[in-house]
């Protein structure tokens, strides 16, 4: 093989590797964006279906529920 053919072969291989890396990065980025969108939609749907699981309004005071154990923690106003 001549030197020119080796250089062309190496450049083609390098271009294929770069193209593969770009495609992989694009696929990972698209998957990440898709996952974030699905999570946002899920969170909004859950809030719409059962808003009292997230926010509790009692005597005009808004309090946020703790969701670690799905128990309702209410802020009491004893005035």
Keywords:
single chain, 79 residues, mainly alpha, two-stranded antiparallel sheet, 2 strands
Structural account:
By secondary structure, the chain is mainly alpha-helical. It has a domain at 3-50. Helices cover 59% and strands 10% of the residues. The protein has one helix and two strands. It has one helix at 3-49, and strands at 55-58, 61-64. A two-stranded antiparallel ribbon has the order 1-2. Strand 1 (55-58) and strand 2 (61-64) form a beta hairpin.
Largest sheet: 2 strands, antiparallel
The secondary-structure class comes to mainly alpha
Instruction: Note the overall shape.
Output: rod-shaped
Average pLDDT value? 75
Poorly predicted parts = none
| Strand runs, count | 2
Helix content: 55-70%
| Strand coverage percent | 5-15%
End-to-end span in angstroms?
92 Å
SSE arrangement, N to C = HEE
Strand order of the largest sheet: 1-2
Number of helices: 1
Give the topology, please.
Elements: H1 3-49, E1 55-58, E2 61-64
Antiparallel strand pairs: 1-2
Summary, kept brief:
By secondary structure, the chain is mainly alpha-helical. The protein has one helix and two strands, in the order H-E-E.
